[in-house]
Amino acid sequence: MQDIEFNGEFEDEPGLCSICGGDSVLTGWNEENDLCRFECTDCGSIIIVDSEYNETILKGEKRDWVTYLKEHLVFPFDARIDEVQGHALFEEGPLRYGDKVVVKKISGEFGMHNIIADIKKGTETFRFPLCDLAAEDKKSPNHYVLDHYRTWSANC
User: Fold this and answer.
1) Per-residue DSSP letters for 107-127?
2) 19 with 39, same domain?
3) What tens digit of pLDDT does each residue of 96-130 get?
4) Domain count along the chain
């Protein structure tokens, strides 16, 4: 893949980095092999995508999100429930859309894209999908890290 030239004409297409959930930019096209080259503006990865959406990573590596989030989020932090799965919005229960909570720590994984966090609402502690929470302080590093994880979790 390193030797393939990506000098065909293309229209600028924004994309989503499958490594970090950040923005990627189409930087090349190889018409002969029907390949696109994307570069991430956030993590610097370079990914080649074929016509069947198979990816080959030229620079960077798949992210272990549990480890990454434990290393890059500062706990505890204020968040709000920003999404609810299923019909929880209409059900009776202690957690509802829009509730403000405190994220205490990452407590585990459930499946490939669901990282579970220990959260606190009032005096009660719950386990809740991290991808359904949004950091309250939009200027904090936690907001940036969590937003990228949420985007990756929803789309990759």
Assistant:
1) EEEETTTEEEEEEEETTEEEE
2) yes
3) 889 999 999 999 888 767 899 999 999 999 999 99
4) 2
